[in-house]
């Protein structure tokens, strides 16, 4: 099934969300020959710790996605204000539709869960589904924001995919204080999901839509 996804779009409300929710899957997709695009909507300049340039997350997201194998020209970064994406809902939808017109052959979109309680995440989830409603759509897991999450699809991962995910997240040096970026957390969650699936490591996704043509 994974081989059928040839052109994939990852929607990240903030830089690092895509890697946190789907870094292993992204790595595996690229390994299998898929073309992956990564779209981040906020670089959260207001939340950057003192001592770092305000635009540091633009640099860090490019470094992180490069570790996973995403081409630099496929990384699209917007600078909407953090925690206020809902105020730019229509602009965001129009950006997504513009992208879809150019890349009509996108066959999988990865985005946050509809049940994610962060206001920016829910905005990207809703507008992403609106824009790509005819495509296959999987929601990735960010357990600290998900009051509920339907583990409907599991992606089996190898050690190398988890290591790439961990190495990618290490590029976010400005965010190193966040406990959910730690290697121990990333690995333990992958192990837990793997136990549920009967493999060593896994990531899990909600299936919003599976489009078979």
Task: Describe, in short, the structure shown.
The chain is α/β, with parallel strands linked by helices and 213 residues long. The protein is 38% helix and 20% strand.
Task: Give the topology.
Blueprint: E1 7-14, H1 17-31, E2 35-42, H2 56-68, E3 75-77, H3 89-102, E4 108-112, H4 119-131, E5 136-140, E6 153-157, H5 159-170, H6 183-197, E7 201-209
Parallel strand pairs: 1-2, 1-4, 2-3, 4-5
Antiparallel strand pairs: 5-7, 6-7
Helix pairs in contact: 1-5, 2-5, 3-4, 5-6
What do these coordinates show?
This protein has a single domain, classed as Rossmann fold (3-Layer(aba) Sandwich). Helix content is 38%, strand content 20%. The protein contains six helices and seven strands. Strands 3-2-1-4-5-7-6 form a seven-stranded mixed beta sheet, with helices on both faces. Helix 1 packs across helix 5, helix 2 (56-68) runs antiparallel to helix 5 (159-170) and helix 3 packs across helix 4 (119-131).
What are the main properties of this structure?
single chain, 213 residues, alpha/beta, Rossmann fold, seven-stranded mixed sheet, 6 helices
CATH superfamily: LmbE-like
Overall mean pLDDT stands at: 96
Number of helices: 6
Q: List low-confidence stretches.
A: none
Adjacency order of strands in the biggest sheet = 3-2-1-4-5-7-6
Any idea what the CATH architecture is? 3-Layer(aba) Sandwich
Encode the helix/strand succession as letters.
EHEHEHEHEEHHE
| Euclidean distance between termini CA atoms | 13 Å
Topology-level CATH name: Rossmann fold
Count of DSSP E strands?
Answer: 7
Question: Proportion of β residues?
Answer: 15-25%
Described by the principal axes of the CA atoms, the overall outline is globular
Largest sheet: 7 strands, mixed
Radius of gyration equals 16 Å
What is the C-level CATH assignment? Alpha Beta
């Amino acid at each position: 099934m994974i081989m059928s996804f040839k052109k994939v779009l990852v929607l990240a409300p903030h830089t690092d969300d895509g890697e946190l929710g789907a870094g292993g899957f992204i790595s595996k997709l690229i390994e299998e020959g898929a073309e992956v695009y990564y779209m981040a909507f906020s670089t959260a300049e207001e939340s950057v710790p003192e001592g770092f340039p305000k635009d540091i997350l633009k640099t860090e997201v490019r470094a992180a996605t490069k570790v996973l194998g995403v081409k630099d020209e496929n990384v699209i970064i917007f600078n909407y204000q953090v925690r206020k994406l809902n105020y730019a809902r229509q602009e965001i939808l129009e950006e997504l539709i513009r992208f879809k017109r150019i890349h009509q052959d996108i066959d999988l979109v990865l985005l946050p869960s509809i049940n994610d309680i962060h206001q920016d995440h829910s905005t990207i989830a809703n507008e992403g589904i609106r824009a790509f409603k005819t495509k296959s759509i999987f929601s990735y897991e960010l357990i600290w924001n998900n009051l509920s999450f339907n583990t409907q699809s599991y992606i089996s991962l190898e050690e190398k995919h988890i290591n790439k995910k961990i190495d990618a997240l290490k590029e976010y040096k400005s965010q190193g204080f966040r406990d959910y970026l730690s290697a121990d957390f990333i690995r333990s969650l992958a192990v837990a999901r793997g136990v549920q699936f009967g493999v060593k490591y896994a990531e899990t996704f909600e299936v919003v839509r599976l489009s078979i043509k």
